[in-house]
């Protein structure tokens, strides 16, 4: 167990938020009261030596929380309410403050950055095709070009599990756009243990990328 130097804000969505989320939008999933309760959000904020001051914390963070809660349901910012004021925030959300936060599994990654580092270490230490462990002096990297890098912007510098069927995926590292690898046309890097696995990757990955791109395009057309 590890004590975290944070307070916690518990966010509950009120009826105006649910009504906004459930506006007609091409048959999207309905945000019911039950689903909203299941998806209740917790935000960690800096700890203070005194009792947490709810109003002071909201004055500092309400805009960031508002944007996060809206994007959790609708990514298209054009569909977000305008303008977004503190009054609307208070009408749309209930906020509870908790002063003590403990981590019961401190050995596990806590932040997205820590998860990303763990994923990168895993993707670098094993063959993406056969799963064989590969150290720094073994194996090789296979690079692949992506038709539209914008589709992978959110994964830059992170691991992207490229689905190859309904159950399996190839772990790919998405190179940063300004990296030497990206400038050389290697948008994705795949760790392989041998020439045999590299040949298999060069058959599997391009096909999987095409299938994935078609699904992304289909989703984009539907949401548009």
Mind explaining what this structure looks like?
This protein is of the alpha+beta class. The protein folds into two domains: 2-103, no CATH class; 112-194 and 212-223, no CATH class. The protein has seven helices and nine strands. It has helices at 15-21, 33-38, 54-71, 86-92, 112-125, 180-183, 195-223; strands spanning 2-4, 6-13, 41-46, 93-98, 101-103, 140-144, 159-163, 169-174, 188-192. The strands form three sheets. Strands 6-9-8-7 form a four-stranded antiparallel sheet, with helices on both faces. Strands 3-2-4 form a three-stranded antiparallel sheet. The protein starts with a strand and ends with a helix. The mean pLDDT is 90.
Unreliable segments (pLDDT under 50, ≥5 consecutive)? none
Strand order across the largest sheet: 6-9-8-7
Q: Please tell me the overall pLDDT.
A: 90
Largest sheet: 4 strands, antiparallel
Topology of this protein?
Blueprint: E1 2-4, E2 6-13, H1 15-21, H2 33-38, E3 41-46, H3 54-71, H4 86-92, E4 93-98, E5 101-103, H5 112-125, E6 140-144, E7 159-163, E8 169-174, H6 180-183, E9 188-192, H7 195-223
Antiparallel strand pairs: 1-5, 2-3, 2-4, 6-9, 7-8, 8-9
Summed up:
The chain is α+β, with helices and mostly antiparallel strands.
Tags for this model:
224 residues, alpha+beta, four-stranded antiparallel sheet, three-stranded antiparallel sheet, 7 helices
